Each structure stands twice: as structure tokens, then as C-alpha cells.
Amino acid sequence: MTIAQDVRADDVDAIVRRIGEAAREAGDAVASASTQQRNRALRAAAAEIRRRAPDILTANAEDVADAKARGTKGAFIDRLVLTADRIEAMAAGLEDIARLPDPLGQVMAEWDRPNGLRIARVRVPLGVIGIIYESRPNVTADAAGLCLKAGNAAVLRGGSESFRSSGAIADCLTAGLVAADLPAAAVQRLPTRDRAAVGAMLRLSDCIDVIVPRGGRSLIERVAAESRIPVLKHLDGNCHVYLHSAADPQKAVSIAVNSKMRRTGICGAAETLLVDAAAAPGLLPPVLGALADAGCEVRGDAATQALDRRILPATEADWGTEYLDAVIAVRQVEGLDEAVAHIGRYGSHHTESIVTEDDAAAEAFLARVDSGIVLHNASTQFADGGEFGMGAEIGISTGKLHARGPVGAEQLTSYKYVVRGNGQVRP
Amino acid sequence: MTIAQDVRADDVDAIVRRIGEAAREAGDAVASASTQQRNRALRAAAAEIRRRAPDILTANAEDVADAKARGTKGAFIDRLVLTADRIEAMAAGLEDIARLPDPLGQVMAEWDRPNGLRIARVRVPLGVIGIIYESRPNVTADAAGLCLKAGNAAVLRGGSESFRSSGAIADCLTAGLVAADLPAAAVQRLPTRDRAAVGAMLRLSDCIDVIVPRGGRSLIERVAAESRIPVLKHLDGNCHVYLHSAADPQKAVSIAVNSKMRRTGICGAAETLLVDAAAAPGLLPPVLGALADAGCEVRGDAATQALDRRILPATEADWGTEYLDAVIAVRQVEGLDEAVAHIGRYGSHHTESIVTEDDAAAEAFLARVDSGIVLHNASTQFADGGEFGMGAEIGISTGKLHARGPVGAEQLTSYKYVVRGNGQVRP
Above 0.85 for ipTM, yes or no? Predict the structure, then answer.
């Protein structure tokens, strides 16, 4: 990506504005490109990622060395490191996105008016999407790929620690666009590590239509506070599993353990287990045993501690905590009303599951819990665009506007009304 | 509406917070109320408006007298004044909203996964909607009615000039809620004229889910700049009619005149007429004559002035102006590409119409113009929720996120994913 010669290299506002303006113009081109052309760009980008894998690994090794030299720790380094497998997964992911149905041009609804007007609501791109993310460099490919699929231009701002890695990946996307005769500026990465660039991006409301932050709470909160552009929020996943009194004991064990322990670091991981008090003496011990066997620390309320002395006490703070670790809080409740109230008070509107053989209780839970995803007799770890059949996702929205739950290509679109007449005027 | 005794009457932040918290709680109740119960509240509110019409007129007369005493002018007073007809229209409007299909619970999409999970995307309320509007007191009934239909609570802040009128109308909505056994706090009006209340409302992001401003550009811009809550924007309607070279001459006249002159003060009124230069000598004179006969001032580019010496010159500023008056700007263009480019540069993404008998040209225009509403051979004045068959609208969104074009009850909803399993865990 080259910045015009008349912009000084240290003038971050001007650099970001140039990128935004180029994105706006490129967005018009990808919006009107055919399905085939956009998919060709995605497949060409995948091929470039495979071809340039050695360059990407070299760039990544430099990023990792720098991070280690600064004393950065384990989980962070793990997110930053690319391997041959991770690079292949990026390429395959872009090919998966190319195979998805094209959301653009879909007629979402169509009807006739008594005066003969025919009205259609048709899916169109959002325009320019700004993505601000942290250390995982592979977000570069996933996010840009989804934006392009939906006919949008993308402006990417990765974490400064993954600056070289993200740049090497973004170059592959650019090459894919060029190979498909689309403007390179449809995917741009901010060419500076300067943190001021994030602020400049968040003020660019005439060039960027929506901001998608991906990262920890502090990033999301900074973006939400500073942005003059609408934000698709992806906040905490403080997810709950509720074992209703009519739960099947085996499902209770497998769903609780999988929801918590399959992967503890993802937003769909369960953090609190609620159990009907009347059924707890029967239901809970095998669940607690299985969690302990899986290496999970359990923090319980007094009633739960009474079942097993090794359980640590849960405090008020535990109900609101997203551990993202092998820790679970357990609370006994007096039935469905109390479970729903607990989730409403402490939850983050992300994903909650009820385990029960009582269909009426399940339907009440599914209707009353106000979360993006509500499940009956299934693990909260299904909170994932791929598992939903969306092919890929840019995140899980915990906001209520525009998109809720997994945000895939379809959720990165808007619509317009197309009205066909034969001379109608309004009386 | 009563405020708790422990809140000081001049503590605007505390007053607004109490209202927000009550709205959040009441929102849960209307969200889970049945279709019949919400419709009963709407019909009871309509009956109260008819019953209390004399009180509403008295309150309104006081508002109007105050406004006149402050030297307020014609159009403003016209928007403020209520008449028996306008009051009846409010009541009838609420009954219309009651007759609309219930958007809640609609299954927007449903599919099965290979692992047996059944996933449904189901329409749910947004939650609490804050509406900030200017002088028209009847917005109180329309906006609250649409919010309630969609299972939302409403927090209303009307213009200070219509304070008494809006209060009298809001009381009818409250009475309707109570008659249907729903919490009165599901429709609340801020009980203060203090402008600081608007700022307090815009900061209440934990209680209010979305802000809908209705009013002039300065209101919308203030709200967009200050709000910590997502805003559904309803900006200018700088709408265009494009007379393509293959336009039917009679449709050209009737659509241009109706788009401009039926009502000049609404956002769907056309402000600029674009004409293919090659066809202008034949097409344009009858259009200009009909506009002049209707009392419209025409400002044209040089080529248009050459057709009729009485035409005033249009300047660059005219292309970007929303006159909301009997004035139109006319520009000749070299074909569809230039028309689309002009609209992209000067338009406000609201509503644009092409007049042509050439279907390929029409489809190109409908696809390429990036506006919420695009029409072929029909008047721009159809930009209206009622004309679209939505029953009523809270405004026309010019933003691309969440809702675009007319915002009716369906657009005041969100969705959630309901996932039904039989014990599935994620591998």
C-alpha cells in the first residue's frame, strides 16, 4: 500500500484520511462487482497466502521475537504465533468464504401496493468497514475476506505487535484483488503502528460506515467511547448453563463439561452453572466430579459447597466474571424464574443454555432469556458462525442493533428499497 | 408520571436515570406481553385520546399562546397546533398500528445443522427506545404506539414548546397501558423542559438501547455528536428525479411536478431534477412550464437557462440544498453515468427516482444509486411508511445500519437465535 507523496509520513490524520477516501472509492467498485469477480479475488488471495507462506512466517518470526524481547507472556505469544497449519487454515478459510452463497442482491421481501407499485427490499453492501483487532494476525484474512464477500471495502488496524505479520497477510489480499481486476484499496491496512491512528480512524465518519472491534474489553470500551462511527459491539461472553429440575443427568454432565471445558478461552465458554436447588443433590455431584476430573476449579454458593467440601466459595463478583479459564461458578436457584432473573442481572446477553426434558420449561427459557443465542439441550460452545453454518464470522455481536449473535457475510450488509412503477404519483 | 420522592426536582440526571430504569423494567413486561395485550393498550390509548380531546386542546392552546408570546413564526406554529382533526388522526393512527401484524416472534429464518441442531432466527423487541423530537406534539402518539407495538418501552423527549401538549397525549398512552394491565412506565415522557435532560438521556446507555431523533439537521447532529447510545439517523432528504433520454414525456411532467410540489416540506420531496442533455430540448419545456404553473421557482444550469430566460442561475450550493420549499434545481447531464455520479456526490442517500421507458437503464439506476429508496417511474413522495404499507413510521433512516428507509414497527425490533438440540456437545 502506498500513500500519496504529498502526505507526510508522520501526519497520521492525513494518512488515515487518504486510506479512508481510497476505501470509499474502492467500496463502490466491489459493491458493483459480480459474485464471480469477488469470489475470484478471494480464491486468488488464498493462493497468494499459500505461495507467500515463507514470507509470512518470516514476518511473524520478527514480530514474535520483538514481543518476547519486550517480555510478553504465554497466551499472548500463542495468539501471535503463526504456523504452517495456521497459514493453511487462513487460506482454506478464504476458499470457504468464496463458496458461501452471495448475500448481495437477495430479495429479502417483496410486495405489491394497491396503486400498482411493486416494492422490494434488496440486500446491498454496508460500504466501508473498519476492523480494529488485537494480536491474532489471522483476523486480517478472515475479516477482510468476509467484508469482500459482502461487497464492502475493509480498513484494517491490527495490533502493533503483529504489525509485520498482518502486513504480509494484507499484501496477499491486495494481490488477490488485483488478480481479479478489483481495486487494491478495497482491503487496506493502516501502515503505521502509531496508536493515534485508531483515534483518527474512529473520527472518519464520512469514509467508514461501521467499526468492528475485535479484542478484549478495554479495546471495545475505548472504541465505543471514542467512535463517531456506529460500532458493532462484541463484548463479554458471560455465558450460563442452567440445569433445570427435569434435566437428563447424562446430558447435564456432558453439556456442562463441554460448555465450560472444550475451550475455556472463547467467548461462548460457560462461566456460571445454575442448578435447580430441588434437583441439585441428585444432578450436581456427577457434574462437579466430571468438571474436577477435567481440571476445572469450581466456586460454589453455600448450598453447593455443602455437597462437596472441596468447593471454594463463590462471591458476588464471581457471578459477573468472564473467567476465560478453567474456573466455573455454581449457584443453586429456586426454579426457572430465578434462573432467568440471575442471567438478566449478571449475564452479558451472549449465549445461555437450558438442560431439561421438560419442553414447556425449555420454551419458557428460550423465550424469556434476552441473549443473542439461547439453546436447549446443547453446549454453549456452539456459539460460533461456523457451527451455525454461516461459514465464518467476524465475531459475536452482543448489541441489539443491526446484527446479534454471529456476524457473518450476511450481517455485513444493509438493504435498500427498490420501487417499480408505471407513472404513479402520490395523491 | 411520578418521580420518586427521594429525587430532587432539579436533579435532572437523577430524574432521567429513574425514568430509564423504570423503562428498562417495563420493557421486560411489554416484551413478554401477548399480541392481544399490546394491541388492547393501543386501542385503549386511542379511546383515551378521543375522550380527553378537550384537555389536549386546552394544553395545546397554552403551548401555542406561549410560543406566540415569544414571537415564534408561522411554519413552527403550524407544526405545533393541534386541531380536532389532528387529534382524531392520532387516535386513528394508534388503531391502525393495533391492526398491523405483530412483528414479535416471527421466525425470520430457520435451518437444520448436520449434527441435528435446529437453529431459528426469531424477532424480538429492541428494548428501550429513546425518542427526541421537536415541535409536532402528535409524534408523541405515533412514536410511542410503534414502540409499544414492537414490544419496546419508550422514553419520549418532545420539544419544550409542546411540553403541555405532549404531556397530555403521553398521559393517554399511560392510561391505555394501565387499561391493558401493562406497566405505565412503558411509555414515559421526560417531566422537565430542561435541555440538560437531553444530554442525560443520551448518556443512559445501560437503560436505553437506541435513540431516534426526529427533527431538523441541528437536532440530529447534536444527538449524533453527544450520544453514547446507538442512533437511528434521519438526516436530510436531498432527493432527485432523473429524466432519462427515454422518459415518457407525460410521466416526466407528472412525476417531476408531484415529486416537488405535492408537499414541499417533507423529506421525500424532490430538490433537484436531472435531465439527459440530448433529450432536454424536447422533455424539459413542458416540465418547466408545469412547475412554474404550480408556483415553483426553478434554478437551472446554463443549458437549462438557455431553454427559458426566466430561469434563475443555479450555483454549486444549490445541488447540495434541501429546500423544503417551492424551489427546484435543474441540471442537464450526459447520460446515466453522470446522473448517478451527481446523486452520489450531492445526494443524501434518501430517495431518488428515474423516469424512463428503457428498462435496462432503469435497472442500472436502481442497482447503482446508493439510497435507501430508489424508484422507477414513480414519485419520490412515495417515500413514506404508510405508502409502503407499513402502517406508520417513526421516520426515514438515511443511515445504513440496522434500518434503512421507512422505520416502522418491524424495524424497531432485533432478533435472537433459538437453538434446539437433544444433548449435542461440540467436538
Answer: yes
